[in-house]
Amino acid sequence: MSTNDELLLQYEGQIVARSFQPGFVVLSYLISYIGAVLTLELLNRRTSRNNLVNNLILVSAAIAMGGISIWCMHFVGNRAIVLGHDELELRIDYSSGFSALSFFLPVFVLLAAFVAIGANYRVSLWRTCCGGVLAGAGICGMHYLGNLSINNYQCIYNPVYVVGAALIAVFDSIVALSLFFVVRASWTNSWWKRGLSAVLLAAAVSGMHWVAAVGTEYRLIHLNDRARLSQTQAIIVAICLSVAAFIFMVGSSIYAAWVMRHSANKAQQIVLGAAVFDKSGRILVNPDGLLPSENITDTYVERTQGDTFSIGHPLFHWMFQVSRNWNSVSGMIDGMTRHLSRLPKGSRDNKIRLVDDDGNLIENYDAIFRELFCVAAASLAGKLKEQLVDVGILWDEILATGVDGLPHKFDQRVERKLEEGRFGEGRENGIMRQQEYGRGSLMFLVRRLERSQDVDRLEAAGFRFAEIHQVSGIIGSRMQVKTRDLKSKLMNMAAFAEGRAVMRPGVHLGFFGVKARVGSFGFDIIVKKGTRNLLPTMPIPLERLEAWQMDVIRRFDRMNISLLFQNLHGLRKLSPREMLFASQLSDALQALRAWIDDPMFDEAVLTSKVVQLPCRAQTGSNSGKPCTMVALCIMMPIHARARSPRCEFMPLNFFKVHQMAYKDSPQLAAFTRHVHRELSPITTYQRVGRAMLRRNRFDFLRHLGRSNTRSNYAIMRDSTSIHPNTGQKSPSPDADQLGSMMKPWNQDTSDCQKPCNDTILDGTGARQPSSLGGIMVSQEIQVDISQIDDAGGRLSVPLKATTKADRVTMVKAGAGFDFEMDCLPGEDTRAGAPFGSAVAEREKVDEVKLTFVDELFTVLARGLRRIALPTTIAAVGGGALLYSYRPRNIPGFEGPAVPPPIYGADGTFKLPRFPKVKSREEQIAALKKSGTGEEEEYDMLVIGGGATGAGVALDAVTRGLRVAIVERDDFSSGTSSKSTKLVHGGVRYLEKAVWNLDYNQYQLVKEALKERKYFLQTAPHLSSWLPIMLPLDKWWKAPYYWAGTKFYDFLAGSEGIESSYFLTRSKALDAFPMLKQTDLVGALVYYDGAHNDSRMNVSIAMTAAVYGATIVNHAEVTGLLKNENGKLCGAQVKDLIPERNGKKADPITVKAKCIVNCTGPFTDSIRKLDDQECKEIVAPASGVHVILPGYYSPSNMGLIDPSTSDGRVIFFLPWQGNTIAGTTDEPTNITPNPLPDEKSIQWILNEVSHYLSPDISVRRGDVLAAWAGIRPLVRDPKAKNTESLVRNHLVDISSSGLVTCAGGKWTTYRQMAEDCVDAAVKEFNLPTKPFVNAPRVSGTEAVDDGAILDGTCQTHNVRLVGAHGFSKTLFINIIQHFGIETEVAKHLTESYGDRAWTVAALCKPTNLRFPARGERIAQLYPFVDGEIRYAIANEYAQTAVDVIARRTRLAFLNAQAALECLPKVIDIMAQELKWDRARQEREWKDTVAFLQSMGLPEPMLSVTRAQVEKGKLDFSSSLEYKMYSRHDKPPVVEE
Prior knowledge:
This protein is of the alpha+beta class. It is built from 44 helices and 47 strands. Strands 31, 32, 33, 34, 40, 41, 42, 43, 44 and 45 form a ten-stranded mixed beta sheet that branches. Strands 13, 14, 15, 16, 17 and 18 form a six-stranded mixed beta sheet that branches. Strands 35-30-29-39-47-46 form a six-stranded mixed beta sheet, with helices on both faces. Strand 42 and strand 43 (1218-1222) form a beta hairpin.
């Protein structure tokens, strides 16, 4: 019996045992992976449903997935199945028909799946799921259809495995495709992310296959007779397909690497890019995320030092104008291309050589550079499938690209000349130096697509539209753009493309500020940031200026701002119309001053020169109305900078170009003529030369003469000649550089025998279109042409001849032009014309009108000349006096912004009527309405009522947003009330910045110094300047610290108030008598700010409430709400006050578009409500402060020790009548009320004792209060190194939309809030809008914050509650009216500002002669009962701790004094808030527990209220008892 018979007998009808070969299993997965990678790469390249290429890509992707990843994997995988003992007769035998069918089935199914998914960049869940189900079905279908092709076995399937295999295929396909399309839509499509998607997709195929294979048994039907397609042949086919796919992938990778290198090389060159935006602001990119771009040239070669290619360069100005009128050059592109092709090329790279062998620039360098730009623009238009006229307009900025360093390839001749120092020899104006090596320039043509058809067409052409924030990083990194904020630049381009920067018709008041440019010639002008074609202006509600109004303006000529206001005020006493005009002009002047927000504005003068501005009215308006500007002019100092965030400087000459290069500008026609005269001779020379040779064969040449339209033409004599060998022109002294030039030879003349109509032909006689094409003929140009005879082949001109002339008419003909010649009646030619003269007629260029820029600059220059000498003398003398005396305008010392109250006509005293804030119950009701749908959801919900949270609420509400803020405890209950009470830039940060060359630290100091000024401007009652002494114990330290403090002053600039100064030893002891005299050699004093931190925090929150924000304290966020897309949409809030009253509180649902986390040290607890898996970012550090009696320091001088025993800095400052010392910096755990540790307190006391006089004993018992604050240092969760701390502050937005603002410090709270709100507005498209009907925070009708609430950030101008009526003498008015003690009155005005009127009115009468009002709640401190009532009614105080710690500062000043006054505080609050006995007892226990964190001695923690009320506290064991000399014992008498 043969072997086959034995096998058949053994296995026929039986289940054949199977096993698997690991090598083929691995190979099958690799093949599936290769197919999946190829599939995803092809899908990534598909940009649209339209276009043949996109459809081919779709089909190729289906073939790659179905044919390679599935089909090939199936047959290679089946080869891994070993049946029996792997006998050849037992191997699987396939049917050719079913095998072929199994190849095409998955291809068609996957084609349907990919069509279902679509080419959109917006991920659709149902489309992805549908595509994943179809893909899974294709995988399963192919497997089981492939098994049907098995001839010699019957497959037996286990249903469980069949279902499992299908689920694996569908689930993995959905996950893989979802991951791929999500990554693709977010433009984070790194190669490894696509690879991961391919791993999952291959896992779907392999997983399904092997699960199905394990659940499949094979019953032998007959042996394999090899008659049909064998298993080995199937594997060969599969492997061949896989190798082809692999080769294609390798080629794609090589091409991608080449593209990357090409982009890097472009970054070193001058490149023109296209920034095309659709109506939603998305930007056009290629599938790799790059902008379409074309190289202009390798570099711009500088001819002189300082001749850099920038927006101030004439070449850029030419490009800027020509991009506004592409029609002027569109017909010349072919000629430009031919001309450039004839220029010398480099032997290596075949690029145009702009430098000749001698190292000099080639002739007509500027014209060639312009041609290169135009040709690059045309190429860019070709890439975009557009006409040149539709390619876009040039953006008004150049971005630097590339990296520094020498180029890899450079002309050896030039390099040799550089080494020899001879680069530039060869002509007088040779090249001085080349542009900085390794640096490129990137210009942009911007365009906005208004039609969806254009968007579809470009997507079909292989481009994509992406959100700017998604691709800005890709563009910046791959194109090596060096700007720091490319995203904002691209957004500016989008706004620029919209073309909304227009001046509306009417009358405007404008600011014309000019300064000389530093380091080069020319001037800069201050313009609006982002719309650099516009000056800072404010509209005056007039359509035009009447003659009498012009007379009024002439009266104010050359007046500065202060004089202008005085004279305008005087006009209000005249006629009604003059009063109205004065009011309108004054309002515009005040609004412009507030908008510019720069002290330099007050030095500008009004000019009587009224100018007309380009008026580009919007669609639908009357464009015929004039646009008139009354200008304030100033020549600013050369080092002046734009302090206002709304303004910036730009070159004056470019600003002028802006005023000429707008749509439908009348000056574009003149520019077009200039372009043709400049470029036509170069681009058309070869053409003209052939025409001249043709005329020579007819033995005559035409002599150009005068025409009958003499008034419109000018004669150009022998100004320019054309060299036949180069086609270039040679200048002569009288050259007219704007004219076209042609120099024909003169010959003998003869009469024209008959009328003729000749056309210039080329050398072949065929009529060809001229390369000049598109020449503009503004009117018929008629030129008289005289015939000159040629005798003997020599050129001669008779002295006098009579000829007949022809008329030449230039007629535009399609892409070219013709000369049509008609005979004219004869006339005498000019006698005595010199040989070789070229008399060419040209159309006169209409004189370009001067722009308003020229007019105003002329006025400014004349004014400067008139006052130059007196100003110089006055400046020298005044500068010396100013340096000697340095007068300071100290904020807080000026008069109140609103007048104080007065007695009325009826003899009654009228207190200010301040706006009433909503009660706490009303605020909670407003919160509830947002969740029930009774009111619209909030734009922003802020969690946390500290400095940052309150600042965010105030910023957002003054931008017109609906804002709510909730705080678990009380405003400023955490870190914000436990600071060092300084508002400072940070001298220690400055020292670190200098020594460590740390730019981030430097920026932190600069930002803080700017914010320091805003503190004193917006809240002068709560902040003040404080001199701080730095004692010196070594003479060598004096210059070191002097330089440091002076640098600190210099950085402060106008934000500084007093300069630092040096004190001798005796002066230092006089200013600070407590100093230790030993080793003291002198001291330096510098100025910083101080403030009342928790009162500042409460004032910020209450100001937000006055502007309409919903403010609720003692409300805890217990959970965050998300919508069906996983995005945050609100929060669950719990009111904690009812529980304190023994009642149950219902949860409150608050709906909001944006949730902002400003919880300081508790930031991570809110972040975990959003995402339990998030990493913690807060690194808490504890800082301990102690309060000592006021006699430890002078009342108006602080002290800093920059070098303590362990290298830390310690402050020793007067505050609220006591002395504060601190701080430490130690890691800690986060707790609501951290306790100050005894070790830190002792360290502070020891450090203080080192620089105080030995006569002063620093005792532990002198510590009146001590507390520990937690500073929330943060890490950036998105940084590469998540362990490094953020130097300044962090604004982070999670994937679900939680905005976290953390870090920073008190001084920069306002900037933190601005950055946070900016980020939220951009991320969530929050609808900012002007604030209409702003509340009268001052309580009067007369108030000027200087804040224009136009929807932008104005918190640097918004005065806080209490600031408007405050002055340093307000306390006197309070004393005189209410009869309050002087110390109390000062305290009230410095804590509440003008609200001190209300606080004093709430004080209980004393029934004493004096004080008449104000019962102190603590004997040693000026806190009175009216403050408690005011805190409850107007500041949402709900607990005793709120009052003694944050409305008054008693707990921070003296913990035991706070304990002693606690019964009185609870009694008043119980009366006002209707507390029962249980609530009062709870308040007592909670407050005493809180005072422990304020340093209350431990024996005092167990005292009862009754003991305090009866004065039966036992002090015998306290430190204070032992410190002082007690008189309860008889004194010891010395014998």
